[in-house]
Input
Amino acid sequence: MVKYYIIIISTICLFFANSCKNDDGTVIKGNLSNLSDSYILASYISADSVIVDTIAVNEKNKFNYKVNIDTLTTFSLFMNNQESATVIFADKGQKVTIKGDALFPDLINVNGNEINDDLTEFKLANQDLLKQRGQLLADSQSDKNLDTTRTNALSRNEDVSNLNLLNHELTLKAEEYIKENPSKLSSLILISNFFMNSDKPKTLERVLGYIEGDITETNIAQRLYSYSKKLNRSAEDATIPYFQLTDKDGEKIRSNDFSGKYLLLSFVSTAGVESRETIELLRNEYEAIGKDSAQFVSVYIDTDQYPIKPVEQDSIPWIVVPDERGWGSEIIDLLNIQYIPFNLLIGPDGTIILRNIAAQEVAETIARSSEN
Output
């Protein structure tokens, strides 16, 4: 009989222990349509380590993911062979729900705490713009690496223009939200989403100026402040930071080697239609510019095709730098290069004249600048 009671008591204790453990666990559950795989990858940082978990998805596109965390954590969920992703925020013991379409990750609704709720509210208020952008990105991805006829090139340029317009409208909406909610963590997230990759550091500096209250002391706010300072060091009208490169012949190139001349720095890849088009446009500009007053340097940053094909090297009449470190290159970080192709024009006095200058406008911009 005593043994019987001991078993009962032990069972009850075990039940409550498991219940308490379940209460402390963080649960992320959801229902996502248009999933091509029977799993989702979840990635987050714990104790300075990157954790990657596989979340099983059932035949009804539902999933339930339990994880033990001790603090507010950012989770990245990767779907459809990592072609789309969404970000959620969860703290210890919270229950977070996700619902949406895997083809439109920017529109996935996440609820379960203040940050997720606020960001979902922003998504719902701007869902038309977000859906247009998502559809445009999806269409561009499906057309990628097709034939390179002039018609397709013009179509790509039109898509880029439309994408820029949508991003501009969304950025304005984000800034409006941040001004109205200066003490919410969701405002910091929107700054990170819409202003971190901006080529206009004064814009990032301006929106950070709206932030107030306790969130100014958070880690994410401190990272944004540090990043803002970094942007200003490579902004237009700033003096180019010192850099050193090694060209295709092994010769050292230093930023001060071009003192007294205009310098066009182009960042490109051996792969990709846009990079090849940029090089061809720069050839025309190079021929139109006096070699005594200007120099070009093209930095190839792709890692999987290093070194650059000899034919391509020999056909470029200016300095070519094959950087085997790719996106890990020091100059990429130093000059805040976020994408390729990317062109940077530097004046004879070392001042950055224009970031992301169009390849076909280099000669005209130099001529205009020389007249002033």
Q: What stands out?
A: The radius of gyration is 26 Å. The first strand starts at residue 26 and ends at 33.
